[in-house]
Amino acid sequence: MNKKLLVVFGVLSAVAVVAYAQTPKAEINLYNWSNYIPPDLLKKYETETGVRVNLDVYDSNESLLAKLKAGATGYDVIVPSDYMVKIMTDEGILEKIDASKLSNFKNVQAFSAKPPFDATRAYSAPYMWGVTGFTYDSKRVPGGKLDDSWKSFFEPPAALKGQIVALNDPTEMWNAATIYLKIDQCTTDAKQAERVLTLLEKQKPFLAAYNSDGTIERMQAGEVIMHHQWNGAAHRTKQKLKTGVFVYPREGIPFWNDNFAVPKTAKNRAEAIKFINWMMTPEAIAIASNFTGYNNSIKGADKFFDAALKTDPAVNTPANLTNRFRPNKICSSANIALRDKVWTRLKR
Q1: CATH topology of domain 8-129+256-317
Q2: What is the SS3 assignment for 243?
Q3: How far is CA 337 from the centre of its chain?
Q4: Closest Cα partner for 286 from 267, 270, 306?
Q5: What is the sign, positive or negative, of the torsion defined by CA atoms of 137, 138, 144, 147?
Q6: Distance (Å, whole) CA 265 – CA 93
Q7: Do 131-254+321-347 and 8-129+256-317 fall under one CATH topology?
Q8: What is the rounded CA–CA span in Å between residue 240 and residue 168?
Q9: Is the pLDDT of residue 45 over 60?
Q10: What are the Cα distances from residue 288, in Å, to 38, 39, 245, 284, 294?
């Protein structure tokens, strides 16, 4: 070949390589709860598909809703809980994705295939599920054991004053309080709301903080003795804090499930749906469960669970305690306004 042609060909090849290297990969932006998906899993997805997943985090459903309603447009996949899926659907925030028609939806277990908040799975697909109780360090409580009641959390022994952290989450606090007080979660009765506020105000002096971040690290470091916790966080806490005890209060325990969804403002809708479909494979979701410490709704995923996950009663609830589960209800806007009012008064 002519030398001049070789030079020209070489220059063109170099330009092509540079142009390829500078061409941005396909990507999606995932907005998820903090510490709730393993980075290695996102890297695995990128390796397998060539699509990069960028992660941003929040600490409550309410924070997620507020961000989207304020006009955030950069997110392609979000992870709202059950009741929040219904709120977002009603407010026209979610894109219809028809998850039940995706190829991997066949892996979804029956109990999660037609949930009351999205009966046809038109707007959501399942991620993790679990319960919200509390964990305490048995070596640091009077007598080494606390009663399996919300009373231990809301009306704790004097020795625990300043040694308890509650989740900075109005829904979780409201749900736990209404269960303890035997009040309908969806009440719109102002007198019942006052009972909830009175209980929370009575508890407040015992708290070191309201904080939903760092629940695992805080307990493992011994910064506090008790923490309001999701059961997956309790599982991860106990990996280092062997004296940690997760409590299923006998009055009942909030049961929830989190879901993938796509906001209408998503710029990468097709890639977002592909990611959601991939997350419904047993191998992928099991990697997530092993990291988060939560169970999931995908058939066959348990075959890939770590042994510690399979045997921890905080995750695999003993059969005699499952009757304590109290699923989140879809409540009216009047109820939501009432609980928000209680939370505002509590935090002022």
Answers
A1: D-Maltodextrin-Binding Protein; domain 2 (3.40.190)
A2: coil
A3: 23
A4: 306
A5: positive
A6: 8
A7: yes
A8: 24
A9: yes
A10: 6, 10, 23, 7, 8
Coil, strand or helix at 193: helix
Tell me the C-alpha to C-alpha distance, in Å, between residue 191 and each of 12, 75, 115, 185, 188.
77, 40, 31, 14, 9
Q: What is the mean pLDDT of the segment spanning 236-246?
A: 97
First to last CA, the chain: 80
* Cβ(277)–Cβ(271) below 8 Å: no
Mean pLDDT of the chain: 93
pLDDT of 19: 42
Domain boundaries, the chain: 8-129+256-317, 131-254+321-347
Per-residue pLDDT at 21: 42
Distance CA 148, CA 40 (A): 37
pTM value?
0.84
CATH number for region 131-254+321-347 = 3.40.190.10
44 by Cβ neighbours in 10 Å (0-12 / 13-18 / 19+) ranks as middle
- pLDDT of amino acid 168: 96
Tokens of 82: 């059950």
Pairwise CA distance, residues 151 & 142, whole Å = 15
Q: Using CB atoms within 10 A of its CB, is residue 328 exposed (0-12), middle (13-18) or buried (19+)? A: buried
**Paired tokens of 13:** 């090849």
101: number of Cβ within 10 Å: 10
Across the range 87-111, mean pLDDT stands at: 97
Whether 243 has a pLDDT exceeding 70, the answer reads yes
Is it the case that residue 16 has pLDDT exceeding 70? no
pLDDT digits (tens, 9 = 90+) for 111-144: 999 999 999 999 999 999 999 999 999 999 999 9
Question: Distance between CA atoms of 122 and 131, rounded to whole angstroms?
Answer: 25
What are the CB-based long-range contacts (under 8 Å, 24+) for 69-74?
69/93, 72/265, 73/265, 73/267, 74/29, 74/267
Residue 220 has what pLDDT? Answer: 98
